[in-house]
Design goal:
Layout: E1 2-11, E2 14-20, E3 25-29, H1 36-48, E4 67-76, E5 79-88, E6 94-97, E7 100-101, E8 114-117, H2 122-126, H3 129-141, H4 145-167, H5 172-213, E9 219-224, H6 233-246, H7 248-254, E10 265-270, E11 273-274, H8 275-278, H9 281-303, E12 308-312, H10 320-332, E13 336-340, E14 354-359, E15 362-367
Parallel strand pairs: 3-13, 3-14, 8-12, 12-13
Antiparallel strand pairs: 1-2, 1-4, 4-5, 5-6, 6-7, 9-10, 10-11, 14-15
Length: about 375
């Protein structure tokens, strides 16, 4: 599977854009702030319906416009498929697949899996637990519709429960108890799936870091929940219910739910030490890249197709050895889109790529590719 073409309308700095891609490797070259990353962002939206950098959808709509759109044509084994995402300032975005409006945006998940490599990936290691939970959840959501159901129901219940806590109404305890059961049921399912996938991520990330460092460093990814996970889903649900009961006074005082998978973390360990605390910046960067490579491998396994690889201005940060390693991995996988400022950063792959120049929102093909 690959993306044949992309059409943008009033998206970021593109009033209008139509571009056809190479089925394997595409390079976008140009100075900063010209629109290279915007193309990768649009492709990621076609994968997940969300941006990997915008806090709100309206940020992606061209300044002065009320709406914008992203449209991609996918080549599948069974034929071509068109995906169109419409963005609006005053209402929710809409998804169309081959001209038919979809009831749920989530129906897009897993249809076109994607992994983004960007300079911000270092925050996966250095940042707070929320970033690592998001990385883990987005990985699972692209592979598992069952997880999507539990995750959405947990988030919905958590939001309603926190709203109730903030109101500090009379007779609050019996009202909270109504939300405890669904929070525990869906929370237990979320935690167990996260734990399962974390173990597989650890295997892939460990191998990736071994390859990147020549076997000098051992990488472990550990799901770190508030509660022990021994026993099945029913036992974990009961543990969550008990923990919610025990935390009742604290939650009522603070006005927020303090128990559940929304408080868990993904631990990253190199040679037996926490990478966030004791790793050098170079080790942290390499660890973050290994995490993304693990995500790539896991999605390939779980979605039964090679994901899109969106490599945003990262190559210049890598030494020559790591550049060669990544380019070799990319050529073994699915369709890849890379951005950069200089063709010299991609010398090992430029002969095999379709190359575009990007300047002030204009994209021009410089090399057709094989």
């Amino acid at each position: 599977m690959h993306v044949c073409s992309l059409r943008l309308s009033h998206f970021r700095n593109y009033q209008s854009l139509e571009v056809e891609f190479h089925p394997q490797l595409n390079l976008f070259l140009g100075f900063n702030a010209q629109g290279k990353t915007n193309i990768l962002e649009a492709l990621y939206c076609l994968s997940t319906t969300k941006s990997f950098r915008a806090a709100a959808d309206e940020e992606m709509i061209q300044f002065g416009q009320e709406a914008g759109s992203i449209e991609g044509v996918l080549q599948r084994e069974e034929g071509q498929e068109q995906i169109r995402l419409e963005l609006h300032r005053d209402k929710n975005k809409a998804l169309f697949v081959s001209g038919k409006k979809q009831k749920k945006l989530s129906s897009l998940l897993g249809r076109l899996p994607a992994v983004v490599f960007s300079p911000d990936d270092l925050f996966l290691v250095k940042g707070g637990p929320g970033l690592r939970r998001r990385y883990l959840d987005l990985t699972i959501l692209q592979m598992d519709q069952g997880y999507l159901t539990h995750f959405q129901q947990y988030e919905k219940t958590l939001k309603q429960r926190n709203s109730l806590l903030r109101q500090r109404v009379q007779n609050l305890e019996p009202q909270l108890a109504v939300w405890d059961l669904p929070l525990a049921e869906h929370g237990a399912a979320v935690m167990l799936k996260r734990s399962e996938i974390s173990k597989r991520l650890s295997e892939f990330a460990g191998q990736a870091l071994k390859d990147l460092t020549g076997g000098l460093e051992k990488f472990e990814v550990r799901y770190e929940p508030q509660l022990p996970l021994e026993g099945g889903e029913g036992i974990l649900k009961d543990k969550l219910l008990q923990a919610l009961s025990n935390a009742r006074r604290e939650e009522m005082a603070r006005g927020v739910t303090v128990v559940g998978p929304h408080r868990d973390d993904l631990g990253l360990w190199v040679n037996g030490q926490p990478l966030r605390k004791f790793g050098s910046q170079g080790q942290q960067r390499t660890g973050a890249l290994a995490l993304k490579l693990a995500q790539l491998s896991l999605l390939t396994e779980g979605c039964h197709t090679a994901p899109l690889v969106l490599f945003d201005d990262v190559m210049a940060e890598l030494d020559e050895k790591r550049q060669a390693f990544f380019l070799n991995r990319l050529q073994q996988g699915g369709q890849a889109f890379l951005t950069g400022t200089s063709a010299a950063d991609f010398s090992a792959a430029s002969k095999k790529a379709r190359i575009f120049s990007v300047e002030s929102g204009a994209v021009r093909m410089e090399q057709q590719g094989p």
